[in-house]
Every structure is written in structure tokens, then in C-alpha cells.
From TrEMBL:
<keyword id="KW-0597">Phosphoprotein</keyword>
<dbReference type="InterPro" id="IPR039559">
    <property type="entry name" value="AIM6_PI-PLC-like_dom"/>
</dbReference>
<dbReference type="GO" id="GO:0004035">
    <property type="term" value="F:alkaline phosphatase activity"/>
</dbReference>
<dbReference type="Pfam" id="PF00245">
    <property type="entry name" value="Alk_phosphatase"/>
</dbReference>
<keyword id="KW-0732">Signal</keyword>
<protein>
    <submittedName>
        <fullName>Alkaline phosphatase</fullName>
        <ecNumber>3.1.3.1</ecNumber>
    </submittedName>
</protein>
<dbReference type="Pfam" id="PF13653">
    <property type="entry name" value="GDPD_2"/>
</dbReference>
<keyword id="KW-0378">Hydrolase</keyword>
<comment type="similarity">
    <text>Belongs to the alkaline phosphatase family.</text>
</comment>
<dbReference type="InterPro" id="IPR017946">
    <property type="entry name" value="PLC-like_Pdiesterase_TIM-brl"/>
</dbReference>
<dbReference type="InterPro" id="IPR001952">
    <property type="entry name" value="Alkaline_phosphatase"/>
</dbReference>
<feature type="signal peptide">
    <location>
        <begin position="1"/>
        <end position="23"/>
    </location>
</feature>
<dbReference type="InterPro" id="IPR017850">
    <property type="entry name" value="Alkaline_phosphatase_core_sf"/>
</dbReference>
Length: 618
């Protein structure tokens, strides 16, 4: 039967309805096949330390020795199978207590691709294997390294003529008897026999049916399946895994290993979405003076983070219900990439500055922030964070220092600030400040100190300093709860009593932490917590009718890229390009009176002036 006729029969047998839903269980790094491994800069060791479960070496027989090479013209002295693979693998096996890897659950097969003349190659191979008793006898010991013969192999009827120490790489279009199939370790084929798919996006539905059919046929024979000649990228690996492939063919073992080893941190599923608020839009975009502004800053929150949160919540967010959208350019004065200090200072003062600077221009001039500026017009302010309240973003709204790390000095700057409510953690910088009289001086300024949310909840007027223990601002996926939402809600209750209006900056601080950690579940759970806080702001704005809500970020963190999503399942899969900030523009969402002024593309320092314009203040 020709390959073409055989493939057509597969389609008829299995039907075009087959799809990704038939995929096998999720793979791990140990299901990677290091294709043409000898071409790596460091043969064997690159794949071995990447914990590949299958490593391939092409061999030729010359003058009684097996040489590793892709073509006979590439044969070089000393590059033998014994030296490059058998000896070091045997040494690893013994040092690991008779296991291929130190992690005893990991397995290993050495795939020897015979380029020609198997009749003489296999006897020589068996002879060489005798020097390593017990190491390469996977037929007798499941912990041993399995030897699989590929390429120029004997006919299936001749498998019985070779010891069971070696197995064979089968083909899907070859018919095997029950006994012959016992000698087949896996079944492989050229991807191009089924599709011209280049690894980008997905194969066509017709090709998908062909691919799934051959994999399913192999699984019905209780054998694992591998495609060779595959594109080699994360998207390819994802698609092949969904199709049900058991071995991922790769020339990038280290990258594939990282992809799977970090899978827990790069995959997130939220089975049950939370409901979102639908705004009334009655005052949205109306050109009139606002009384109040709620500025919500998702630290490190770029478009990818928002879209990740959107997909994980099954296609709905409070943020994405806001219709007026712009983009802010986040570069610092001294660098293309901003940190939170320069980014927040631009938002708080209307001036670009150097990284690490808090409330100062590049030439060290103090600039009045929104909190102090608005106080001159009778507008009271609150600054809230679910992180360290002396950290860069909240600090930019009440402090002036040359280095964001100067937490003691930043805490002491609160004495000069006009802020009414300050909520966050880092008690140490206040309780053990270099200024031993700081708390007494703050008390003399009218601040009421609270060290837990319960006590804060009992306060309904006056200046509030809420210094929480660090444990209270632990990540939300470690039990923080809705601290950010409740802090905003109670601050609104207090500040809304001010007849001339209020300004509140509310920071989702730990979206950034998840980006630095390259941890997708961390990012998304913090994004969802922030989004639920946005809901509280939108509800207040609708009730009040004179409140502008702005949602933006100081910068993007992590270079997040979404590789795969399933909005129905709330599943996302991603990669990060860096553990630092990026220069990517961040979105600006606005809702309420004056919201249309936040459309367009502009430097982030312009948000300060747009807020002042919304208040109709000079």
C-alpha cells in the first residue's frame, strides 16, 4: 500500500471530525526528543542536562567502529558513538544509582539512526553494548537506558533475529504482527507527509484530521508517536501536544526543557469566572467639570496582562467595559525603560524624571505632586497600595527623594504631605524610622494610626495612616483576600464627605511582582484582584455622577506573550521575554466626565495635566 493511499484510508477510518480534543495527557521536558543531537555545540550533555527523554545519534560503520555523523563526508576521527554517547551515558547511569537521571522518575532512550548497512552496524553495536552490562538493557530493567534503532532497520519479520536488548522505531504505514509490535519502541513519521503547516497558527482542519488520525492509530496499538521534520517553536510544541504527539522532536533541547519545566508558572486556568459590572455610561465622556478622580495604577500591567486576565475570566473584565481608551509612552528621562519611580513620578507630577527618582526632576528639583496640588483647591486625597507603602509608585504621590530605596526618608516625607489617607504595608520604615519621633509627629499632624483593616473600618473621618503588617499584603493567591477593594471602598466612604471633592490613587502593586517572577498565575490572580477593585470605582462613579475613573500602568513588566488561550475554559499559556520592565506603551482606560480626553497616544506625564483639566483647574 502506498503512503498516499494509506493516508486516505486513515481519513476514511477516523473521520474528519477528529480534533484536538483527542489529545493525550500534557507532556513534560522528559518527553523531548533531541533530534540530530550530535549537531549540538555540546553533543549529549546539552540534551542530557535538559532532561530529554530521547536522544538521537546518526551512525556509520567505518573500519570496525561506529562513527556519529549525519553524512559519510562528515565523519571525523574520535567522534565515535562509544566516546560521545555510550561511555558518558554509562557513567551517568552508575553515578545516579543505576538510573539514567538523578530524578529516578525520568527515563531515557538512545535512538541510534543507522544511516546505511544495518546488517553490519547492528552486530557492531551489540558488541559495543556488551562493555556496559546492565546499562543499556531496557528490556530487562525499566530503569535502564533503552536502545532504539531507527533509519536503516531490518524488516519486521527479521526483528526476532536480534536480541531484545534493542527495539525499533516503527512506521505507521508498516503492518506489524502482534509479536513484531512488541519490538517497536515508538512509531514515527515525517510531518510533511501530512501537512505543509509551517508551525505558525494551526494546521488546516483537513490536515489536522490527517495528523490526528495517524496519532490515534498509533495509540490504538499502545505505542507512542513522534513526528520528525517539525517546525521548532513554542507554538509548534503546543499544537503537537494538543494533537496527542508523545515525543516532541526538537533541535532546541534546552529551550524545550525550559518551556516544560516552567509550565506551572506559564499556564493558568480559571474554571469559574467572576461576574463583572456593567456601567450605566450615563456620564461617560460628558464634557463637564469633575468633582472626584480615582486613578487606579496596575503596576507592571500592559496589554498582554490585561488580555491574559480577560481570557482567564472567560472573556470579560471590568476594565474592558471602559470605552475611552488611550496609550501612554512610559520611557524615563534617562532611559528607554522606566522603573516605577520615574513612571509614577511622571503620573504624579507631570514631569519626566530619571529612574529611581521620587518626586524630583532630573536636576533634583522638587515638583509638587497631584496630592499637594489638589489640596490647594480643597480637594482631599488618598494613596492606597497592596504592597509596601514606601515603594516607588505610592511614594511618588507624597515623597521627594533621589532614590526609591530610601524608605526611611520616604516615610519621613509624609510629614510634609497633604495626603489624608495612606494605606499599605512596611511598618518597619515608620515604627523604626531614623526619626524616632516620626509617629508622634504624624499624630500631631492629625493622623490616626491603624495597623489592621478592622480598625481602619471603624474610622469615618479625619486623616488615616493604615500601616499593615507585611503578611497582610502577601500575594492574593496566598490568601491576601480583597484588601485592595475594601481599602478603596472605605476610603471612598471617608473622602466622599469632602464637599469640594477628592483624589484617590489605588495601586495594584503585585501585578508587577508576578511579571518580575515570570509567573503567569501570580500575574493573572493579581490582575483579577485589581479588576475587582476597578469595579468598586465604576460603581461609585455611576452612583456619584461627578467622578472620573482612570485605569493605567506605570510600565509593563516581563515582556509577556500569550501563546495559547481557551476563553471557554479560562485557560492561558504564555512566555516572558524578560524579568524586567519593557518600553511597551501601556493602556489608559477612562470612564466618566472628561473621559474622552484620555484617548490617543501621549507621554505618561500628560496624564497629570489631563487630570487637572478634568477638575478644570489651572
Amino acid at each position: 500500500m502506498t503512503k498516499k493511499i494509506w493516508i486516505n484510508c486513515l481519513v476514511i477510518t477516523f473521520g474528519l471530525a477528529l480534533n484536538y480534543a483527542s489529545a493525550q495527557t500534557e507532556l513534560t521536558a522528559n518527553r523531548g526528543h533531541s533530534h540530530n543531537d550530535y549537531k549540538q555545540n555540546i553533543p549529549l550533555l546539552t540534551a542530557y542536562y535538559a532532561e530529554m527523554g530521547s536522544i538521537e545519534a546518526d551512525v556509520f560503520l567505518r573500519k570496525g567502529e561506529l562513527y556519529v555523523a549525519h553524512d559519510s563526508t562528515e565523519i571525523k576521527p574520535g567522534l565515535t558513538l562509544k566516546k560521545l554517547y555510550l561511555e558518558p551515558l554509562a557513567a551517568f547511569y552508575k553515578s545516579n544509582g543505576n538510573h539514567p537521571y538523578k530524578k529516578t522518575a525520568l527515563t531515557l532512550q538512545l535512538v541510534i539512526d543507522v544511516k546505511q548497512d544495518y546488517q553490519h552496524v547492528l552486530p557492531q553495536l551489540l558488541k559495543e553494548l556488551q562493555d556496559y552490562p546492565g546499562v543499556f538493557e531496557g528490556n530487562e530493567n525499566p530503569n535502564a537506558i533503552r536502545i532504539v534503532i531507527s533509519g536503516d532497520v531490518p524488516k519486521p519479520a527479521d526483528f526476532k533475529n536480534y536480541p531484545e536488548q534493542i527495539s525499533f522505531d516503527g512506521r505507521p504505514y508498516t503492518t506489524y504482527t502482534h509479536e513484531q509490535l512488541k519490538r517497536v519502541a515508538m512509531i514515527s513519521d515525517n510531518l510533511k507527509n501530512y501537512t505543509q503547516w509551517n508551525g505558525k497558527g494551526n494546521p488546516t482542519k483537513t490536515d489536522e484530521a490527517l495528523l490526528t488520525a495517524v496519532i490515534n492509530k498509533t495509540h490504538q496499538q499502545a505505542k507512542p508517536f513522534r513526528f520528525w521534520a517539525t517546525p521548532d517553536s513554542p507554538n509548534t510544541w503546543i499544537v503537537l501536544e494538543k494533537l496527542g504527539v508523545d515525543w516532541i522532536n526538537t533541535d532546541k533541547p534546552s529551550k524545550l526543557s525550559d518551556f516544560y519545566l516552567d509550565k506551572i508558572k506559564l499556564t493558568y486556568t480559571s474554571a469559574t469566572p467572576y461576574s463583572v459590572y456593567t456601567p450605566t455610561y450615563k456620564q461617560d465622556g460628558v464634557h463637564k467639570k469633575v468633582k472626584n478622580v480615582i486613578l487606579l495604577i496596575g503596576d507592571g500591567m500592559g496589554l498582554a496582562q490585561i488580555h491574559a486576565g480577560l481570557m482567564a475570566n472567560h472573556g470579560d473584565l471590568n476594565i474592558t467595559g471602559m470605552r475611552n481608551i488611550g496609550f501612554a509612552q512610559t520611557n524615563a528621562a534617562d532611559a528607554g525603560n522606566t522603573d516605577s519611580a520615574a513612571g509614577a513620578t511622571a503620573l504624579a507630577t507631570g514631569f519626566k524624571t530619571n529612574n529611581r527618582y521620587i518626586g524630583l526632576t532630573p536636576d533634583n528639583l522638587r515638583k509638587t505632586n497631584l496630592v499637594d496640588t489638589l489640596f490647594g483647591y480643597g480637594i482631599k486625597s488618598g494613596v492606597i497600595s497592596v504592597g509596601d507603602i514606601t515603594d516607588a509608585t505610592p511614594a511618588a504621590f507624597y515623597a521627594h527623594q533621589v532614590d526609591r530605596a530610601m524608605s526611611n526618608e520616604i516615610a519621613n516625607d509624609l510629614l510634609q504631605s497633604k495626603v489624608e489617607i495612606l494605606v499599605g504595608s512596611n511598618q518597619k520604615s515608620f515604627f523604626k524610622n531614623k526619626n524616632s519621633n516620626l509617629l508622634k509627629q504624624l499624630e500631631s499632624k492629625g493622623f490616626q494610626l491603624n495597623t489592621n483593616m478592622a480598625d481602619f473600618g471603624k474610622q469615618f473621618d479625619g486623616k488615616q495612616l493604615v500601616l499593615l503588617p507585611d503578611s497582610a499584603t502577601r500575594p492574593v493567591n496566598k490568601g491576601r483576600g480583597d484588601l485592595l477593594k475594601q481599602s478603596l471602598k472605605h476610603s471612598l466612604e471617608i473622602l466622599s464627605k469632602n464637599k469640594t471633592g477628592f483624589f484617590i490613587m489605588t495601586e495594584g502593586a503585585q501585578i508587577d511582582h508576578g511579571g518580575h517572577a515570570n509567573d503567569l498565575p501570580f500575574v493573572v490572580t493579581e490582575l483579577h484582584d485589581f479588576d475587582k477593585t476597578v469595579e468598586e470605582a465604576l460603581r461609585f462613579a455611576d452612583r456619584d455622577g461627578e467622578t472620573l475613573v482612570i485605569v493605567t500602568a506605570d510600565h509593563e513588566t516581563g515582556g509577556l506573550t500569550l501563546l495559547d488561550t481557551d476563553v471557554k475554559k479560562g485557560m492561558i499559556r504564555a512566555e516572558f521575554s524578560t524579568n524586567d520592565h519593557t518600553n511597551i506603551m501601556v493602556p489608559v482606560f477612562a470612564y466618566g466626565p472628561g473621559a474622552e480626553d484620555f484617548k490617543g497616544v501621549y507621554p505618561n506625564d500628560q496624564i497629570f495635566y489631563k487630570i487637572m483639566k478634568a477638575y478644570q483647574l489651572k
